Input
Amino acid sequence: MSNTKQPISNRLRSLPVASGGGLPSKTPTRRSPLPAGEAPPLPLLHQALHPPNPMGDPHLLSSAHPAAAAASARKHPGPIDERFSDPSPHITKRPRVAADAAATVGSAPYPEEEVRSLVIMAGGIYPLARAEALRGLAAVLEKAGTGCCDGAGIVECCYGCAVELMRDEDEGVRLAVVRLVGLCAQKFAARMDVDAKSDGDIMDLIFQQLSSMARDMCTKVRIEAFGALGKMQRVSDGVLLQSLSKKVIKTDTMSGTIIKGQKLPPKLKIPCAAGIFAHGIEDEFYQVRTAACTSLGALAKFSSQYAEKALDLLMDMMNDDTETVRLQTLQALFHMATYGYLSMQEKHMHMFLGLLVDANALIRNAARKILGLVNLPKLQMFKSAIDCLIASLEKNPEEQDIYGILFSIGKNHGSFSANIAKHLAKEIATASDGELILDRPRVKALIIVSISAPFSDDKHKKLDIPSIIFSHAISLLGKVSCALGEEVNQDSLLSYLCHKGGMPLWGNRSVSVEFGESESCKVETVEVGEQIENTAKATKCLDRVLVMQSVESILQTVEGAWTMRMSCDVCEARTILRTCKEELKVLAENSSGSIGAFLSFLCEYLDAIRLVVELWQLIQLDNSYTVGLTAPDILLEKLNISVRRMECCYAGLNRGLEVQVMELALLANLLGLSNIGACSKAVLSKLVWIINRLEGLCADGSCELSDFSREIKKTFEADHIGSALIRNIHTSVELFRLKPTTDFGALKAISGVLQVCDNNSENPQSYICGLPVGVSFNISLWNISSNHRLWLHMSIGESVQHTFLDFSSFEGDGEVKSGSMVVPLNTTPMAHSFVLRVCLIMECYGGISSNQERHGGPSDCVVQLSDELDVYFVSTGQR
Amino acid sequence: MSIECLVLGAGQDVGKSCVVATIGGRRVMFDCGVHLFCRGRSSYPEFDRILAASGATDFTAAISCVVITHSHLDHIGALPYFTEVCGYHGPIYMTYPTKALAPMMLEDYRKVMVDQQWEEGQYSYEDILRCLKKVIPLDLKQTIQVDKDLVIRAYYAGHVLGAAMIYAKVGDAAIVYTGDYNMTPDRHLGAAQIDRLKLDLLITESTYAKTTRDSRRAREREFLQAVHKCVSGGGKVLIPLFAVGRAQELCMLLDDYWERMNWKIPIYFSAGLTIQSNTYYKMLIGWTSQKIKDNYRAHNPFDFKHVCHFERSFINNPGPCVLFATPGMISNSGGFSFEVFKKWAPSEKNLVTLPGYCAPGSIGHKLMSGKPTRIEVDKDTHIDVRCQIHQLAFSPHTDSKGIMDLIEFLSPKHVILVHGEKPLMAFLKERVESELGMPCYYPANNESVSIPATKNLKMSATERFITSCAGEQTEDNLRKQKLICGSNMAEANTDRKLAEGILLMEKNKAVKILCEDELVQVLGMERHLVQNEPMVSSRTGAAGE
Output
């Protein structure tokens, strides 16, 4: 027992650290499920330290009675906290050991103990107990942080244990092994993100081990193994390629590899990854085939060579007899296409185009979507694809989205569609009246393809589309605008077509010019997200890598806009910032987890930047100091709120992001200073605080203090009153550079949702004038920890009531907590009816607040957590 | 105890599979096949060797039971001869579908015997019936206690309807005889499936000991592409096949494709094929693949939607169609497939598919070897061949990867290869020994291999010994816990421990394990201490000499 003789006070001290820091002690325990994120109350802890029954060695116990252990473990599926089930041996019994433990152990490493007991249990003779132990290990692992070295040790330990049981006779054990190994692989990969690429070999090894499990005789094991294979990362090309071909490519891949002094078991020397996917896709059980297809597609992003070969296998899956598998295959292809790893070849066309005329509408639809993204290298393939789409259109005229697909194919292959346009123009020219009927799907389709050419990416080529096409396209306005999506409204499209078609019909040149311009502007900003947006609509769940790509390009655009501001092109900069924010919003809506949090953070950031730009423009325009609430004041307040939100509403801001926020805060305060024109003490003290904070953040050299902050610091040190600051404000602001980081770590968005039960304008709640009334709310909180202070902000017109929100009784885990409560509204107005506006606010604790405690309410530095909610009331007399 | 394995057939050869394994005194005969390229007695295994090896006078005494894995002739063909002519009257086991299909197969073979006018070794139709009456049917995973010691169990093997792998166990010694099996499922049959057993010996087929096949999907795609091209060009497709197995698989593939493409082009089965074999499949749904088992209540996949009623006159109908016809390799002498081939071969629009194997001399073989434009049937008639030829490459046998996978999965102590060609078997033996580290043999016909078998002994241990073991382990655990903090976690895995003790076999053969200090007490002797003084010859002395 490592922590036997540690003083109780010590352990008590260590507990909150464990709960707040990287170590997960938020374990639901056996005896009493504690609310997550809270240190156990004292009596319980006491019990843990002094267990009622002084049994002998717990491990002997657990290995001697695995059945009993398993039975209890089954009763409590999920993580088992061995702290409580393992009573410490009595100190008097083994003084020697205890003394040793006390000497070596500093702070109590709880997960280690859990892991150790579970590993011993996993060596037991009863298969159910073994399986349960492995599941327990997986649960521990899931919670363990990867950052700290303790976590790393745990991963290795779990992995070792799992590998030993890989050849177990019991299916249940093997199933648990696969899950555990898969989890270990993820942890290893996550750790290697931090570390240097020290041991990529281990990922290959795990891949091979999982592959050998994927040949198991048990269906469940196979399904699980293929699922785990799909989640692997950093697997070397050689192993990936081997997994596609049953023929052994290289013989010396793994032979004699020694990992951390541990010689590989001889069985792994043979390349067990060989052809694992070839086996997977011809499995008897469709669940296995589905899992194999998914993984095939998922791994494609790591190697283009692999992707090419994987495509061959996936294409063969189109003949599968189960619809689910075919659809999943299409999904996998779609996944590959969004990554740009789908290079269709001529040999695939027969199979693929067959899908476009499949009897099943779902299949047709999925195949079309892929076609809209894919790049066809040859004109012949392009033409056959178009022909097939037309055939499909003729067969199923109700499927109008084909036009959209035609447009995007055309757009993706500019020169090919120009070619089509040329032929079409000839056809139109030679056709006598009435012969070329525009109603025919074929002509419609070809026109759509033709007019898509100018939108194509390869702008360097001059693609001249005969104007006659455009004039024909006018009659298809509805279809064209439908194909374009909601980006462009019909009027501007019409004028654009007229303009291109050389018709003075809608001779309003300015309109068409405007359209062209706005189009070009949009193309710049929208294009980035366009493709993703389309896919986002389809998948509803965006991939991290993809999102980061687009975020990066958006941020580049933003930086460009910022420099544009320098050239006083404020209007345009503002537009670009707005569009970029919209883009991010779309992305954010479709993302979740820390990436979603980061995206909403960026939205906030862009908002702030936009406000800065606008504010700066106003300040430059108008230097006279006015009294009262002016536009700059409003903007400034908005900016401050925005900065505060960034500061407070995100948990786990890393250093880079915090520096970013602090600089913005500095800028905001500076602008405030220049707006007022004089230095108030409050503002100055804030500035000092921010500068100190920035210095503190950059102290260890991980970030560098920017020129901007350094300059302000210098001026500030020279002159404490701040008059020099105001004088130099222009030069200082010029120094401000945008450098948004894309490294966001484990960012979490703090937010809340407020709902009122059973109330709307049609169904108001009744009250008696002048008497208090209770309002019942459903509240969900995300990433709120116990030290946040939340308030309900309720206002009726001018009068405001704040009610402190005690969410300790809310249920849920560390991420989401929810509960319902009845909140009394103390005074009701003497009116027939009124609307109560309610929102959740959170107090900010930080240096920037002026900390004037209002009596009974929150400090004046708050951020709004939820949207404002209207609650309708009607006096009982009126009802 | 050892396991004696006498290979009577299919040793370094394909044909007349027959292995007699002696496990702990019980003799089990696995399969009893004929060699299709031989005639007369030479096509049967040399049964007399069993008597010679066992010393018994009749087969019933020598052999505990006969187990037949599946209904192919090279695994079942000699069974009526063995029972009715040689006079074996012990139990015979085979799976239900094998028992159902056996009469059809055996009767076919009997006709061949009659046709070829064998001088010896013939059996009559009555023999077949009498023989099959003795058969005890087996179900999958059903454990059968053949006698006091011998236990057998069947596992699913794929390959053909009703094929099984047989697990046999006497005491602690256990073996598996695979028969023919397929590790990859096809449209109508599942993949071989077996538990992880503790085996002393695995006897496996090795037909494709060196071949690694690519994905079955690719072959399916090629086949469908060829058919698609032909049919959409208005051509006719002739698929000559044997009745059971492949025909159903291909027909399911086409039926499915037709469904997806929404085609109305007719698919025909020539008479005889349909009724008989499809009926078996419909009856024996439990032995087919998972997909069929899942769906057959809603729709029995052997009720093909697009298969139409066929009449001979349809051969000359215009328009595209697909026709399945027997026999498989388009024999010169006749058969329906030959008749159709004569009509359809001259048009380049049409397509003829060929099965994986065609006997030398048949038209199929001629078409396979090169692309003849003209085939002489006899002196007067010839056929102009202008049609497309597509070679089918579906096989019901597992490839070398599958064999290795199975061996690896079962991890037996020894492996014996049968049912394969000698050089290929030698190659596979090398792989098994080097990659999996298992001793591997591939005996020729009539050779015998003996391997040691597991025997577990029950052993009692003194209380003292157990306490001392447990005590040591506890201490060891405690010591380890001290080590394990932070980075040393990995060591938690390595807590296998050795326990020291003395093994004592008493007069009544009971074995006991005890502590060192107990020994003297148990033996009732005094403890003597012997001290040794090492004598080191001195170097100087050597130099002095």
